[in-house]
Amino acid sequence: MKDFPLFPEAASTIANSVDNVYFLLLTVSAFFSILIFSLIFYFAIRYRRRRPDEIPTPILGSLRLELFWSVTPGIIALSIFAWGTTIYFRNADPPPGAMEIFVVGKQWMWKLQHPEGQREINELHVPVGQPVKLTMASEDVIHSFYVPAFRVKMDVIPGRYTSLWFEPTKPGKYHLFCAEYCGTQHSGMGGWVYVMEPVDYENWLSGAATGETMAEAGEKLFGRLGCQTCHRSDRPGRGPVLEGLFGTPVQLQTGEKVIADEAYIRESILQPAARLVAGYRTQMPTFQGQITEEGLLQIIAYIKSLAPAERVDAEQ
Ligand code: CUA
Description:
Elements: H1 15-46, H2 63-92, E1 99-106, E2 109-113, E3 119-121, E4 123-127, E5 132-138, E6 143-147, E7 152-156, E8 162-166, E9 172-178, E10 191-196, H3 198-207, H4 214-224, E11 249-251, E12 257-259, H5 262-270, H6 293-305, H7 309-315
Parallel strand pairs: 1-5, 4-10
Antiparallel strand pairs: 1-2, 2-3, 5-8, 6-7, 6-9, 9-10, 11-12
The structure holds dinuclear copper ion (CUA).
């Protein structure tokens, strides 16, 4: 029972806002349920048929009453909508500078990796007071990453990236669940999020060091798959230059423009012809089946780390 309290702890910056909306909904529902049921009983007794031949007075309606009971719930519903939407948007948009962690869900475990290279299974260590953004993919079926104490939940879907962010406010150990039925061991697909003081986190991070960051692992994979034969850094080869590409707009053959984000890069590796860059031909083979979701995330981390020469100078 201790692990499943009636109400989970509120341990993130968004938790109290989510709870407030929840309590408002609960109060509004309780108020109207009590009001409606009381009136049903009261009217049933007050206006019961008293004589077998009794005929009630016909009532043709009341415009004022009808307006009142249409407009009032309308205003209440729209206020709840506006309030909920504000929180939804806040929750959907990670603040700039959030620490990024990569998550792969598979039957039946969570594999997590920090950009510095540390890997975890069914455990996530994060510092307190720091926004954390998770970029998530699934290796098989739909899972859902759920941390009740943070009031955040997001589906993890095969074939695309979803993301979720939170900012923990209290050090501690919080339950992590899979919240989407994903097979026989679904109920066991959980773990813990450890929220640590920044110093403890730094210690943990160095203690768990692997000697290889995600970008470095991505670079190795990039070499192993032979990507550098076409994607050259010195000049455009058979494939576009990848330095400084991440997050910038790309002109497609169709005339359309897309931002080179995680989803676009993932798609371009698995289905190169799907959204081809203007000026290139469909020569690149697909890497579908040759690379895992974790490998894709590592290559993306590598491409992210490739700043164009001028930008590196400007930053230094
Ligand atoms: Cu994964 Cu349920």
